[in-house]
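Please, structure for the following, as tokens.
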Amino acid sequence: MTLEVVLATHNRHKVEEFRRILALAVPGVTVAGYDGPEPIEDGITFAENALIKARAAADHTGRVAMADDSGICVDVLGGAPGIFSARWAGTHGEDRANLRLLLDQLADIREPRRGAQFVCTIAVVVPASATRAAQERVVEGIWPGSIATEPRGENGFGYDPIFLPDGFEISAAELSATEKNTYSHRARAFTRLVPEFRGLIQ
């Protein structure tokens, strides 16, 4: 038995990354794109925003829906940009502007005070049906590391070129897709979701 899950995002990079991770973690689960309305993300935590998106997609499609809310949290900035990562420079999705602003803000900060972590919270919402009650599940994955002084690498997206994962001497944007999908914050969150998905496809 297989299960197709609606991924509540219009970000094609995320869709591709989720598909690759799920193919490795739970072969019986596939990811479908989502073209429905985007809700207002007015939560103040990653978990709240992930649930807002997953609930909206489940309500719109009547299908099992999944959403993530993720970002980079810098120690010296008290955890910022955090939930504002995608619009840190003022406009949602301006990756280069967000990255450059963060580097400028850390220009005078030296190692070992450039610590940071990528955080990914994934919410899965299973709508009620004739055979099961509605369900919600939220998990979190954390990828520790630090912030580089300049962008490095062409792979990945967002803050990947300036994130140096612990245990590596290269940036997240210099990792192969397979490496990133093994070690990233999303991969770590998915590890916690695997039992839930296996239960849904049995």
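DSSP finds five helices and six strands in the chain. The longest helix spans residues 185-201.
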